[in-house]
TrEMBL record:
Residues 16-100 form the Plastocyanin-like domain. One of its GO terms (molecular function) is copper ion binding. Belongs to the multicopper oxidase family. This is Laccase-1-like. One of its GO terms (cellular component) is plasma membrane.
Length: 166
């Protein structure tokens, strides 16, 4: 079974599924990788998404396929491992579910739905490479301006009353 939902900011799969994620980098002049935070990648080390360590970055207008087994079960997240792209919104939850038949907590709940997932992240109103061009220096003042819930916000630009969400 294959799943992925980057547009919805979260992904849920079952334990031992094969996860296949096709990334098509459409960001002009930027590279990207996806790191699966908390997954061991024991038999698939080149799917870990750490640029120049486990893989080369995905160049503009190219594609890369991540393929790995969904183990272990638990709640994790994915994020870009390039510069500050995580802060630009390339992140989301990644849940590997244990089958209900062996889940010891199954009697405690009726429904386990994607709508029950809440991920809270911080978000800057400008792209990070514009806001922090020298982000490698110390004391950058790296503080969020808004928080996102499931990748959405309600920020209103004062100058034109336009509501914008990433």
């Amino acid at each position: 079974m294959h799943h992925f939902c980057i547009d919805l900011q979260f992904c849920m799969v079952c334990l031992y599924d094969t996860v296949v994620v096709d990334v098509h980098n459409k960001m002009m002049g930027k590279t990207v990788t996806l790191h699966w935070h908390g997954l061991y990648q024991r038999y698939t080390p080149f799917m870990d998404g750490v640029q120049f360590v486990t893989q080369c970055p995905i160049l503009h207008n190219t594609k890369f396929r991540y393929k790995f087994p969904a183990v272990p079960d638990g709640t994790f997240f994915y994020h870009s491992h390039i510069a500050l792209q995580k802060m630009d919104g390339i992140e989301g939850s990644f849940i590997i579910r244990e089958p209900r038949s062996i889940d010891k907590t199954a009697p405690l709940w009726d429904y386990d739905l994607p709508s029950h997932v809440i991920i809270i992240t911080d978000w800057l109103h400008d792209m990070t490479d514009e806001k922090y061009p020298g982000f490698l220096r110390t004391n950058t003042g790296n503080f969020p301006e808004t928080y996102l819930i499931n990748g959405k916000n309600n920020y209103v630009y004062v100058s034109n009353n336009y509501i914008y969400a990433p």
